[in-house]
Design goal:
The complex is a heterodimer of chains A (243) and B (479). With 243 residues, chain A is of the alpha+beta class. Chain A has helices spanning 2-13, 21-30, 44-54, 83-104, 147-150, 164-172, 177-181, 191-207, and strands at residues 38-41, 58-62, 76-80, 114-118, 124-133, 137-144, 155-159, 211-221, 228-230, 233-237. In chain B, the strands form three sheets. A seven-stranded mixed β-sheet of chain B has the order 3-4-2-1-5-6-7, with helices on both faces. Classes of the chains: A alpha+beta (243), B alpha/beta (479).
């Protein structure tokens, strides 16, 4: 909880209403939410060194207070298998960010360098998110990623906090629930691990009500017994100046 | 909510003395219509008018100010122009009355100027411990105490009556709807305890009344019509509902299902979270049953008021008409209920006691020449088998063989088994009368299979809310 408050304070001091990826993951780690190994690097040499100690393949992402949508800024490079890949990716990310800044007419701060993460195996893609409703307050959303959420809007909600029974009921309400239970020769997914992620996110938001929006997208859920990982996380906080 | 607050709300329904601020001698005025309600002999409390223009209105004494009345006043009904209400509230505060219904409009619903006046009267009320219903509402109808502030003449807007079986109370944000419901339920003969129109919710809101009605012994089912909650008020309503729904069914019709323009959202979740999704989730999580419209709400409320919650989802349909049976079981199935066939053992028992030409199954068709005896046999065996949680009885009274004793058979089995029953009886004048008799005997009766199915669904849904994991759910959804 303290960790989160410190990070939110730092973000606000920089005039940000979102936290950077490593910060989001620091907070989640403090709440026991499973995430792939990660690190940050400000120089290309540091990026290579940290990738090596993490083990290839890795993912590199831009880390800047001026960029919320990293892919839009060409700031994400995945499946980097060796030193060369990392070197090239680092340079490209920086170049793209500068170009993005020019297009948008923005001064982009590049001093933080990049976020490095273990490139993990693909699992069943899940989105777990939080929103704040003006009438009812914080609610958690869960759904299967990809077309299920994009096209079919197959998601379900519960107000925070909720019980484990609620979390399980929420998943069973999804039209795509059968995929989690295992279908067409695929084994069942680790629903217990997913429920734990949902409950941990609920606790995190309950203790940090300044969070107004949050996405764990994607969250990978593996075969039963093999857990779940929150691969990408975004946290937005209340703008105190507005209120 | 503390008992003190519940007591303060109690005054609105059980006031022993009422003053009508703005009582008027002019015909068809709001100030006169309200006085007319209170001079009916049913209301046994004291009634006064407040209006400097008169010394009496329709025979009741009228005073220049509230403070001029010597006796204490429990409830003040305010029907004067908004601009003078701050003065009226000073008078009320000085008099020491604690419950005020502000009928008048011209407050926050009209814009910032009106909102200012509303803030002013709320501030006076807070300081003096006065509770307010309204403004911009029609107030309350209590069918037991006969407190009635609806300014709608009874020949145009009927008033419901309480039933000696069980009663529904309705809280409505809209006054016009509260009035229409009053008129409609009077016609339907549904047992109503209280109707409350909340208007601008300047003080008393959905949540306060949920606390009150949750403990009100004359209310068995609580219904709401709401268009939305003020900021964070949805959450307090949710919190209270969680404590009430295990004891009493709460139903809501909430309009504004349409997609409102979403505030610019920076996250994926935010863009997917229509306000209505969250409302739905909140209701479900709190054990509130959401109805699509008023007709559905009252079909469900009627069953919930009169019958016990179901302990499982297995339904048996007994009918003397095949078509009615199939139509009803189709509707039940569409609503996710289980309609299991009787076991071989039970089939054998039915076959022993019924003529060979009866169609034994589910629905079980005792056919057109059935008398009440056949219903008796089926219900007796089916209840004893323990194979069913809910019974739907199709009763087509157009056939000459079906004697009226069938109503006794049904209500006796319902009472002795303690299991929920719903009757469906299609037809005209004779059928309607029989349905009324059936309802008087405590079993809700519906004119169509679809309505009866909805009632069954409500009994099962509330059973699940009430009994949680103990509710026996046999139907596995097949998505």
């Amino acid at each position: 909880m303290k960790e989160a408050k410190k990070i939110f304070k730092a973000a606000r001091e920089e005039g940000r209403t979102f936290v950077l990826e490593h910060e989001a993951k620091d907070i989640m780690k403090a709440y026991g939410i499973p995430i792939p190994a990660y690190a940050t690097a400000t120089t290309v040499e540091e990026a290579i060194e940290k990738s090596k100690s993490m083990g290839f393949p890795v993912v590199l992402k831009i880390l800047s207070k001026d960029i919320l949508h990293k892919s839009d800024a060409g700031g994400v490079k995945i499946n980097l298998k060796n030193e060369d890949d990392v070197r090239k990716a680092f340079d490209e990310i920086m170049k793209n960010a500068k170009k993005y800044g020019k297009e948008k007419g923005l001064e982009i701060d590049l001093s933080r360098g990049v976020f490095i993460s273990d490139f993990v195996d693909m699992g069943t893609e899940i989105i777990v998110g939080v929103t704040k409703d003006p009438q009812f307050g914080h609610a958690l959303m869960a759904g299967l990623g990809g077309i299920f959420v994009e096209v079919l809007k197959d998601v379900s909600f519960r107000l925070i906090p909720f019980s484990e029974t609620d979390a399980r009921e929420m998943l069973s309400e999804l039209k795509a629930y059968k995929i989690l239970e295992g279908v067409r020769g695929e084994g069942p997914r680790d629903i217990d691990a997913l429920v734990e992620v949902m409950l941990a996110v609920s606790k995190m938001v309950e203790e940090n009500p300044e969070i107004i929006e949050l996405d764990c997208n994607p969250t990978f859920v593996y075969e039963k017994g093999k857990g779940a990982l929150v691969v990408d996380a975004r946290i937005l906080i209340e703008n105190l100046n507005e209120t | 909510m503390s008992t003190v607050q519940t007591d303060s709300i109690n005054l609105f329904f059980n006031a022993k003395s009422v003053a009508i601020y703005g009582a008027s001698a002019s015909q068809n005025s709001v100030g006169q219509a309200i006085v007319q309600n209170f001079i009916k002999p049913q209301y046994t409390g004291k009634v006064y008018g407040v209006n400097p223009k008169y010394t009496q209105v329709l025979g009741i004494p009228c005073f220049p100010t509230l403070q001029d009345i010597e006796a204490p006043i429990d409830l003040v009904v305010v029907a004067v122009p908004a601009r003078i209400t701050p003065r009226v509230f000073e008078d009320i505060a000085a008099k020491g009355s604690k419950a005020v219904i502000v009928i008048s409009g011209g407050f926050s619903e009209t814009g910032p100027k009106g909102a200012e006046i509303e803030d002013e009267i709320v501030a006076i009320a807070r300081k003096s411990g006065i509770r307010i219903i309204g403004p911009n509402c029609v107030g309350v109808v209590d069918t037991h105490s006969h407190i009635d502030t609806f300014f709608l003449p009874e020949y145009r807007c009927g008033r419901p009556k309480p039933s000696n079986v069980a009663n529904i109370s309705l809280v409505s944000q809209s006054g016009a709807f509260a009035a229409a419901i009053s008129d409609w339920t009077a016609e339907l003969g549904l047992g109503i305890s209280k109707l409350i129109s909340l208007g601008n919710k300047s003080d008393i809101d959905d949540d306060d009344l949920l606390c009150y009605l949750g403990d009100d012994s004359t209310t068995q089912v609580i219904c709401y019509y709401t268009e939305g909650y003020d900021e964070d008020k949805g959450r307090t309503f949710f919190d209270t509902a969680k404590t009430v729904t295990p004891r009493k069914p709460v139903l809501v019709v909430k309009s504004g299902r349409g997609k409102r323009a979403k505030a610019a959202s920076m996250s994926h979740t935010g863009s997917l979270a229509g306000s209505d999704n969250i409302t739905d989730a909140a209701y479900k999580q709190a054990g509130i049953i959401r109805a699509n419209n008023f007709e559905h709400m009252f079909d469900m409320a009627k069953a919930l008021a009169m019958q016990p919650a179901a302990k499982g989802d297995r339904v048996l349909m007994v009918t003397n008409g095949g078509g009615l049976g199939v139509m009803t079981t189709d509707a039940l199935e569409a609503l996710g209920l289980n309609i299991p066939s009787p076991s071989a053992e039970l089939v054998k028992k039915f076959n022993e006691k019924l003529p060979a030409y009866c169609a034994v199954g589910n629905p079980i068709d005792v056919v057109g020449d059935a008398n009440s005896g056949r219903y008796n046999v089926v219900l007796e065996e089916a209840i004893a088998s323990g194979e069913y949680d809910i019974f739907v009885v199709g009763m087509l009274l157009q056939t000459p063989s079906l004697d009226m004793d069938v109503t006794n058979v049904i209500s006796n089995h319902q009472r002795s088994s303690g299991l929920p029953f719903v009757v469906v009886s299609m037809g005209g004048g004779f059928t309607t009368k029989a349905g009324e008799i059936m309802a008087l005997m405590g079993v809700p009766t519906y004119p169509t299979g679809e309505k009866a199915a909805l009632a069954v669904k409500a009994l099962a849904q509330y059973g699940e809310i009430r009994y949680g994991a103990k509710f026996s759910k046999t139907m596995v959804s097949d998505k």
